[in-house]
Amino acid sequence: MEPVTEIEDLLLQYHLRLQSTPTDFHRYIYESIDWTDKLVGIKGPKGVGKTTMMLQYIKEHFDNPDDAMYVSLDNLWFQSHSLQDFVKYYYIHGGRHLFMDEVHHYLHWQTLLKNFYDTYPDLQIVYTGSSMLRLKSGEGDLSRRLLDYTMAGLSFREFLEYEGVVSLPSVSLDELLSNHVQIAMDIKGKIPSIQPLFEQYLHHGYYPFYKVAKTGFENRLQKVVNHVLEVDYPAIDEVTISTIRKAKKMLMVLAEHVPQMPTMNTLYAQLETDRVQGLKMLEALERGGLLALLTDKVKSLKVLSRPEKIFLNNPNLMYALGSKTNIGTIRETFFFNQVSQVYEVHYPAKGDFLVADKYLFEVGGSNKTFEQIKDIENSFLAVDETEIGSRNRIPLWLFGFLY
């Protein structure tokens, strides 16, 4: 590789990206991140706004942009320059705040970060990576050095703020269950008609890039899915082309059947794979933010266990990938996606979801009854097409206010 003698190309790209970064809306974890820690990691599914959030922090906290430096490790510049030489060059020229995007695109990134941490005592590094990332104990041990965060897509609450409709705080599950009528009435006082906005969110509101994709949103989301499978997956798990093809096929087969669980042996035979490899692919698709696996509490403690139900990660993916978009499945997918970002969710003996090992939920339309979960303590209905609930009947959209 060529020695690093100049970084003008990287600086130009950094300045252009920083200039075009909006600061009028911040993601839910922006204020909770300790940006001053020496090593900060932020991971999350592709397309949820990690890069924008990192650039926002630079823009808002450095009077001189060149007191910090942003680089993306999928930049072609790093095909002919080493990251080690770049960091050394940056440091000896006075740089102390380095923001690195897409770290999983660089081989042995974990070992390199450990070395940077140990070699440059006053260098602060913030990095982002795919939600598929996992620290490997066999490589550089970052566990004692790293402060890491996981970022999900937009909640329904964030979507409303992002759209300029209303800015409201999140609520805890206990607040929601005990005071949902008053909470819904307060929100309704600011938003006369919630259901149309909720339906927009289900179609395109989880990924912030919908604003620039506009009519091409579903096509853009399909490209995100392909990138996760074709680029991120092999970069992180070092899988073969054959495994990538099987994972793609698995995703598309499941997209047609969620949440009804196909017979797993039949699915494995269809993919020409075995149980162990099939479960590994399921787990990788979940880490990549493409699937959501619902297990019972016992199975969730085991490695590579068969899930009770398989969902696509969020309703936007259902509209983009599935030819059949059953409204009941859309509702369950929304509930599971939003609640599981904040609380443990398991598959119960009765009902649809067990939350925080305490609260039982059935999800459905406005005509949903308690028949399936009657006489069970701490049981609730999450009902769609309902703007204000009553007693243990809670509007489904309100579960989008948990983060």
Note down, in words, how this protein is organized:
- The longest helix has 21 residues.
- The mean pLDDT is 92.
- This protein has two domains: 143 residues, Rossmann fold; 174 residues, no CATH class.
- It is an alpha/beta fold and 403 residues long.
- Strand 9 and strand 10 form a beta hairpin.
- Helix 9 packs across helix 10, helix 9 packs across helix 13 and helix 10 crosses helix 12.
- The strands form three sheets. A five-stranded parallel beta sheet has the order 2-3-4-1-5. A five-stranded mixed beta sheet has the order 8-9-10-11-12. A two-stranded antiparallel sheet has the order 6-7.
- It is built from 14 helices and twelve strands.
